[in-house]
TrEMBL record, chain A:
Organism whose genome encodes this protein: Fulvimarina manganoxydans
Keyword entries, A-Z: Membrane, Transmembrane, Transmembrane helix
Pfam short name (any one): DUF4212
Domain Sodium symporter small subunit: 16-91
This protein's name: Putative solute:sodium symporter small subunit
Domain of life: Bacteria
Segments passing through the bilayer: 25-48, 60-80
InterPro entries hit by this protein: Na_symporter_ssu
Record bears the keyword Ubl conjugation: no
TrEMBL record, chain B:
Database matches in Pfam families: SSF
InterPro entries the record matches: Na/Glc_symporter_sf (IPR038377), Na/solute_symporter (IPR001734), Na/solute_symporter_CS (IPR018212), Na/solute_symporter_VC_2705 (IPR019899), Sodium:Solute_Symporter (IPR050277)
An example Gene Ontology biological process: carboxylic acid transport
Similarity comment: Belongs to the sodium:solute symporter (SSF) (TC 2.A.21) family.
Protein name: Cation/acetate symporter
Keyword Transport: yes
Coiled-coil intervals, chain numbering: none
Organism: Fulvimarina manganoxydans
Alphabetized CDD domains for the sequence: SLC5sbd_u4 (cd11480)
MF terms (GO), sorted A to Z: symporter activity
Gene Ontology cellular component annotations, sorted alphabetically: plasma membrane
NCBIfam families per record: Na_symport_lg
The entry's keywords: Cell membrane, Ion transport, Membrane, Sodium, Sodium transport, Symport, Transmembrane, Transmembrane helix, Transport
Location of this chain's protein in the cell: Membrane
Length: 94, 589
């Protein structure tokens, strides 16, 4: 299962390290995911009420548009980073 | 041409197209039937997933719910898109790597337990059947309008069409048909929205129009809407009405429910590679977002248009006379989904918030004795082009689009249900030696039973299409998502933990829903009134799924830690799911 490890001092390229790198990336993306939706659109909306957007406030914009746009960017960012990780750790299917 | 025949022409032509495609790509083998032989490009798959995903609830019902509530129903927008982030990051690539046909199959293998697999089947069936009820509600609305029959007759005709349509195809037919359906439904949704946005704001893009200046007032559209609603005693459109806790939980429930719905998950079994599963989720969301970014504009603009129709001289002036009502109101009266009762006998249609005590005095002063126009939320999108006075072909296109949305999702759900029954229940547990031919027959019988149940319950639905569908998300969120996530991200969760977790999540959520919505959704059997005051901690039945999921996670961990850890080969299985390499080999059945 584990890919051959290179000598001491160089980077750990095992399946275990791949998984850890993946978890770090997932965690980062989920923080952004929660921040725009549960944060900006719901919990922090009162704090953002001073920022006007087209007849309403920034929180409303995040609730009805902003978070959706961020979600799209997040998935493609994750897919792109993971393709690079797959290659780096030599676990890609190609 | 008469509108009735124009509708028939558009709906008939699109149906002929779908049936043609389904016939051309019909399923020959079980692998074709369940997973389209894993040969679907990520962009194609994304588009098909989008059609599968955007049901009668998204197409017909959601904009109506947003229109009549405003900010609070943003939960639908964020929930039904945010779930794709969870799907892409937490589930889709690993389930694709695992490479089986159905969700219960993964549960059964990962938790090395036939019981776990059967409970997975149960969770899947409860969530999917609830979802199909919501679709049937929407199908009934769409058919009743364009065939100009009652809502009940529309529902029965719709059920017959869904039956022939889904039973014929299987996944391969469904995937390519769904691409065609996506194109029809997205055109049907955006074209009228563009027309209306141009009429009201001069902005060609509806999502930008929503935040632009309303040309008739010179003020921002949303500010005008808030002001007009206030003058009729309605709550502010952009303001928050419900509790923050409920809004938070409802959004979370819809998100994790999205990632836990089997008919969406199985879409990611059809792509060739693990990395394709990640991108495919992204493409699906792009195609979904085209509709979801348009929906809030459709909602706000339709609300404004309806009020302008009822009060042609502004809300300060007299309401419209019933005899002078526009054609679209007459059409919808036939279906019973729009009704006028002249409470004060003045022959005019007053529309205001009669439940607002503070406004009652003002209403009495104007001689109003109650709001007289009752408009079903679910008709809003279908009626929208008529309300805005758009040409006949746009109205016909929307009818075709609404049916495409409802049919594509119903087909996807029925496929997931039939797969669970024939593949997991019959082949997996009752008769492992069943022939491919008998398995396909069992799959089709399961579909027929599911349609019959959903049609019966659809006659007395527990809510508007999107609300019923939201309940299905709660059930999926509480039962399926946690067990899949734990199966991938933990090597410690064992068979007992998974079984207990699923049962706790499913039962707690289903019981909470039945207490308020009626036992088994049968009308008038609810134990408590379905109002915010009687909800536990103000949590609505639709928002309870997130709590159910939490209970699922917690009980699964507790039980797993108290019992023996999974055997070594299962821990190795989990390790192998986590790396993409070798996915091709894993597809063997």
């Amino acid at each position: 299962m584990a890919s051959p490890q290179t000598g001491a001092g160089s980077e750990d390229l095992s399946a275990h390290a791949y998984w850890k790198a993946n978890i770090r990336l997932v965690t980062g993306c989920l923080i952004v995911w929660a921040f725009v939706s549960f944060g900006c659109a719901i919990l922090f909306r009162p704090l953002l009420s001073g920022i006007p957007v087209g007849g309403t406030d920034l929180g409303f914009w995040f609730a009805q548009q902003g978070s959706i746009l961020v979600f799209i960017v997040l998935i493609f960012f994750y897919a792109w980073r993971m393709t690079k990780l797959d290659k780096k750790y030599n676990v890609s299917e190609d | 041409m008469d509108q009735y025949y124009l509708n028939l022409l558009f709906v008939g032509a699109t149906f002929a197209l779908y049936i043609g495609i389904a016939f051309w790509a019909r399923a020959g083998t079980t692998s074709d039937f369940y997973a389209a032989n894993r040969g679907v490009h990520p962009v194609t798959n994304g588009m098909a997933t989008a059609a599968d995903w955007m049901s009668a609830a998204s197409f017909l019902s959601m904009a109506g719910l947003i229109a009549f509530t405003g900010y609070d129903n943003s939960a639908y927008l964020m929930g039904w898109t945010g779930g794709y982030v969870l799907l892409a990051l937490l589930l889709a690539p690993y389930l694709r790597k695992f490479g089986k046909f159905t969700v219960p199959e993964f549960i059964g293998d990962r938790f090395y337990s036939k019981t776990a697999r059967l409970i997975g089947v149960l969770c899947l069936i409860v969530a999917s059947v609830t979802y199909v009820i919501g679709q049937m509600t929407g199908v009934g609305v769409a058919f009743s309008r364009f065939l100009e029959v009652s809502n009940t007759a529309g529902l029965l005709i719709g059920a017959a069409v869904v039956f022939f349509y889904a039973v014929l195809g299987g996944m391969k037919g469904v995937t390519y048909t769904q691409v065609a359906q996506y194109i029809v439904l997205i055109l049907a949704y955006t074209i009228p929205a563009i027309f209306i946005s141009l009429q009201l704001t001069g902005n060609v893009l509806p999502p930008l129009g929503l935040f632009s200046t309303y040309e008739a007032s010179g003020q921002p559209l949303l500010a005008t809407l808030n002001q007009i609603l206030g003058e009729l005693g309605f709550a502010s459109y952009t303001g928050q009405q419900g509790s923050t806790l409920n809004l938070f939980l409802f959004t979370l429930t819809l998100m994790i429910g999205t990632a836990g719905l089997p008919h969406v998950i199985i879409r990611f079994f059809t792509v060739p590679k693990v990395s394709d599963a990640r991108y495919s989720a992204g493409w699906a969301l792009v195609f979904i977002a085209l509709l979801y970014l348009t929906a809030p504009a459709v909602g706000a603009m339709a609300r404004l248009n309806i009020i302008n129709t009822v009060f042609p001289n502004g809300v300060e002036g007299q309401a419209l006379e019933y005899e002078a009502r526009p054609e679209w109101m007459k059409n919808w009266e036939t279906t019973g989904l729009l009704a006028f009762t002249d409470k004060n006998g003045d022959g005019r249609m007053q529309l205001y918030n009669e439940k607002n005590q503070a406004f009652a005095e003002q209403a009495a002063e104007r001689g109003w004795q109650g709001s007289e126009l009752d408009i079903n939320n679910d008709i809003l999108v279908l009626a929208n082009p008529e309300i805005a006075g758009l040409p006949g072909w746009v109205i016909a296109l929307v009818a075709a689009g609404g049916l495409a949305a409802a049919l594509s999702t119903a087909a996807g759900l029925l496929l997931a249900i039939s797969g669970a029954v024939s593949h997991d229940l019959i082949k997996g547990a009752i008769n492992p030696n069943i022939s491919e031919k008998s398995e396909l027959l069992a799959a089709r019988i399961a579909m027929a039973v599911a349609i019959a149940v959903a049609t019966y319950l659809g006659l007395n639905p527990p809510g508007f299409a999107a609300q019923t569908v939201a309940l299905a998300f709660g059930i999926a969120a509480a039962s399926i998502f946690p067990v899949l996530m734990m199966g991938i991200f933990s090597t410690r969760i064992n068979n007992r933990g998974a079984v207990v977790g699923m049962l706790v999540g499913l039962l707690s959520t289903v019981i909470y829903i039945f207490l308020y919505k009626g036992w088994f959704f049968l009308p008038d059997t609810n134990s408590f009134a379905d109002t915010p005051a009687s909800w536990f901690l103000g949590i609505s039945p639709a928002a309870f799924g997130a709590i159910g999921a939490l209970l699922n996670f917690a009980s699964a961990y507790a039980v797993s830690l108290a019992t023996r850890e999974p055997p070594a080969h299962i821990q190795e299985l989990v390790e192998s799911i986590r790396v993409p390499r070798g996915a091709g080999a894993a597809t063997g059945h």
